[in-house]
Amino acid sequence: MNIHEYQGKEILSSFGVRIQRGIVAHNAKEAVDAAKELTALTGTGWHVIKAQVHAGGRGKGGGVKIAKNLKEVEDITGQIIGMDLVTPQTSAEGKRVHKVLIAEDVYYPGANEPEEYYMSVLLNRSTGRNMIMYSTEGGMDIETVAEETPELIFTEEIDPSVGLMPFQARRIAFNLGLSGTAFKEMTKFVMALYTAFDKSDSSLFEINPVLKTSDDKIMAVDAKVTIDDNALFRHKDYAEMRDIREENPVEVEAKRVGLNYVDLDGNVGCMVNGAGLAMATMDLIKQAGGEPANFLDVGGTADAKRVEEALRLILKDDKVKAILINIFGGIVRCDRVAQGIVDACKNMGDAVKVPIIVRLQGTNADIAKEIIDNSGFNFFSATEFQEAADKVQEALK
Predict the structure, then answer these.
(1) Which strand (E) or helix (H) includes residue 295?
(2) Strand 22-25 and strand 47-51: pairing?
(3) Contact of 39 with 105, CB cutoff 8 Å
């Protein structure tokens, strides 16, 4: 589950991580009131107006701007709220902005020049351990840094039996070139950041930039946070942070009816039972010259109602030119699945306008094939995996 920057900062702050303070506003009047409150709280003279959407690169799309007075706070907020913000991480249509974060200006003058760093905490899947990835090149796209100057990216792996050790936090501060007060501040920041990641059951904490202010404070200026959905039962307060307006509406609907669905960019819809078979089916589609339009696992139950719900979800995508149903009948019998597919298509009538390739293998697969072949619908039945691939290719032509 992705959350907004201001929500991620709330989690960070609750674990003792210093953050750039801010107040959320839903319109220009709230923004002005927030700016006044923030000035009284922090003494900030300028304010940063940040669009709150689930996408990085907001500044490049005009979603992050500086306001030097209250009139500019009002004007800029009015421009940003309601805009369709297009960034390198959104579609061409962009994302509608419904609220902004009015944040304090932390780039104030002082004894030293402010410096920006990159830092994230995530799982290293190759080792099965959490790791901290960090770089002196804060504020930049980390992908660009990794490609052009990989020597500037450091990683620190954490032994799960002992957690992050103080010497590791000190090594991170040393590799970032810090000393004195800033060194001590960074060490505390890293320890608190990892605690926040661990205790919140997150799968990603990305802070870009981490800022060393002109008076050597270390703080999170941004926060991209992803919470592990499977752990939300332990965090009811985090579950309430979900903003479904920021999520794919088809994926939201799928979750509501209990289907595992991920939207993709291809032209062949997939309906499969079991995640492993679903991944293999997507590979099969690519080998056949198509592109999977979705990942859809209907689970162990594939009755008429569930099949119909799945088909309706797939057909919401106008790019879908064919559908491959690939079901292994272990717990559920193939003939029941076949009858469910036929009944679902009868209920949907003219809504099904693309060819459907059906491969049912397992218990009563021969009976299922007869049901599909005699249904009278635009079905292509298949028994073998490769046969299904060939018929996907045929259907696309």
Answers:
(1) strand 294-297
(2) unpaired
(3) no
Query: pTM to 2 decimals?
Result: 0.83
CB 282, CB 292: distance < 8 Å: yes
For residues 46-57, average pLDDT: 94
User: What is the identity of the amino acid at 316?
Assistant: K
Dihedral of the CA atoms 210, 17, 27, 47 (nearest 10)?
Answer: -50
Q: What is the DSSP letter of 45?
A: S
> Which tens digit of pLDDT belongs to each residue from 87-101?
888 888 899 999 999
Rounded Cα distance, 351 and 344, in Å: 11
Rg (CA), the chain: 26
| Model confidence band, residue 40 (pLDDT cutoffs 50, 70, 90) | very high
| Distance (Å, whole) CA 359 – CA 365 | 9
CA distance linking residue 338 with residue 360, whole number of Å: 8
Q: Which residues are catalytic?
A: 118, 206
Give the helix/strand (H/E) hosting 336.
helix 334-348
Q: Which residue has the higher pLDDT, 331 or 70?
A: 70
DSSP 8-state secondary structure symbol assigned to residue 19:
B
pLDDT score at 303 = 67
Query: CA 321 to CA 209: how far, in whole Å?
Result: 43
φ, ψ dihedrals at 207, nearest 5°:
-115, 110
* Per-residue pLDDT at 221: 97
Residue type, 296: L
User: Rounded to whole angstroms, how far apart are CA atoms 272 and 279?
Assistant: 9
Q: Does residue 270 have a pLDDT over 70?
A: yes
DSSP string for residues in 242-298? --GGGS-HHHHHHHHTT-EEEE-S-SEEEEESSHHHHHHHHHHHHHTT--B-EEEE-
Mean pLDDT of all residues belonging to the chain: 91
Do the beta carbons of residue 334 and residue 368 sit within 8 Å? yes
Write the pLDDT tens digit of every residue in 303-314: 678 888 888 899
Residues 379, 358: contact at Cβ < 8 Å? yes
For residue 119, the surrounding DSSP H or E stretch is strand 115-124
d(CA 26, CA 41): 20
Per-residue confidence (pLDDT) for residue 290, from 0 to 100: 87
State the pLDDT at residue 134.
Answer: 97
Q: Taking the CB of residue 241, how many other CB atoms lie within 10 A of it?
A: 19
Distance from first CA to last CA of the chain, Å, rounded?
Answer: 38
The rounded percent of the chain whose pLDDT value lies above 70 is 99
